[in-house]
Amino acid sequence: MPGTMTLDALKEAVSRGEIDTVLVASIDMQGRLMGKRFHAAFFVNGGYKETHCCNYLLAVDMEMTTVPGYKTAGWEQGYGDYVMKPDLATLRPLPWLPGTALCLADLLDHHTHEEVSVSPRAILKRQVARARAMGFDPMMATELEFYIFENAYENLRDQGFANLKPISAYNEDYHIFQTTKEEALMRDVRNHLYGAGIPIENTKGEADSGQHEVNYRYSDALDTADNHVIVKQGVKEIAHAKGKSVTFMAKYDHRKAGSSSHVHQSLWTLDGKPAFYDATDEHGMSATMKHFLAGQLAHAQEITAFLAPYVNSYKRFCVGLFAPTKAVWSADNRTAGFRVCGVHTKAVRVECRIPGSDVNPYLCCAALLAAGLAGIENKLELEPEMKGDMYAARDAREIPKTLRAAADQLIGSKMLRAAFGDDVVEHYNHAAQWEISETDRVVTDFELQRLLERA
Q1: With the C-alpha atoms ordered 57, 424, 303, 284, is the resulting torsion angle positive or negative?
Q2: Does the pTM exceed 0.85?
Q3: Inter-residue long-range contacts of 315-322, CB under 8 Å, 24+ positions, other chains counted
Q4: Contact assessment for residue 190 and residue 183, using Cβ atoms and an 8 Å cutoff
Q5: How many CB atoms lie within 10 A of CB 129?
Q6: Cβ(56)–Cβ(67) below 8 Å
Q7: What does the pLDDT look like over 185-237, one tens digit per residue?
């Protein structure tokens, strides 16, 4: 893929003075890039072997609060170090940051040098290894939606995040004229991300004013998650450089459409054949695909906390705005939580429509993969297809309506405990409980507007 580079190529670029900075970044629980900026000469002369970070990076919330109660890190353990081990397969230039390259890093235990079990990238890597041991390569793609605002991030901060001004005045879903007006930003998004080794396919206007979607080619599950976090980082930084801001919140305004991150999934045999395809089936679905989808349906409620990690995430699940409310399957039906796409073709696949764009892609993809593989292992039978308007379907399996309900399903999941381990389930349940308690604690503008005078 154009844009990625070897260590030798980086050394040459450094010697020519083209690159002077290397970002080394690991992935935190929220899916953010966390790390250091290295002088490029130091990186190529040995810094690429390893560096270190505080282990609180997997035990803090969105505000970087040192959350009590985690088993992996806390004041009682002294907040020691993790090893950050650069994965040179992810090395690439970042065209939107002059003279800069990026390398993602795995987090290792400081003493054993084993991967940290609760690290998002390690969690996904273990599920990929599990799939490969079963004879499959998991292939995935994520679609990312976001809103663009005329306001710069600094102005939003100074104004208390009031007076958000979307970059367009109307729903621009597929609009060429409106998106032409936004090309100064979106052309740079496409070209700079492509230059960074992300196989960009297209961008488009989405289903509300100022909303956009970026699509990049499907790949193996780990590469897809890596691409996802780099895309989010790149879009924010490119927008910031142009005096704009973007949000990947699942629901930034209750009056607006939410922003999703639909996940397309298929399994391929290790010799490169589509394991989901059967030309003789009604929808072109193989027995393997049916078991896989059955597993995701059976465990949909248990994995939702990994697909919708914040209290805000659940405000996206509402009738009539293309976000699902039912965890059921249907062929080419955007009202279902699980949509089967590419029926009757070798591209037949499962699109999970539950995740929002606030998702951590490593945790999301790992949870979906774990549920699907459990379906294959247990040869679960696929329930009948549902047709029509899923919003109106009665007695259909519901997507949990709150993070509290999803966390209750998570902590009791035998499937996830078997797939991820007790430590991972309890770690991320603790994160969910903290998110719930913080949201319960804080007084909101809505409460002030509703109650200050009239209560």
Answers
A1: positive
A2: yes
A3: 315/250, 315/251, 315/254, 315/258, 316/250, 316/251, 316/258, 316/259, 316/260, 316/356, 317/399, 317/401, 318/258, 319/391, 320/391, 321/207, 321/257, 321/258, 322/207, 322/257, 322/260
A4: no
A5: 10
A6: no
A7: 999 999 999 999 999 999 999 989 999 999 999 999 999 999 999 999 999 99
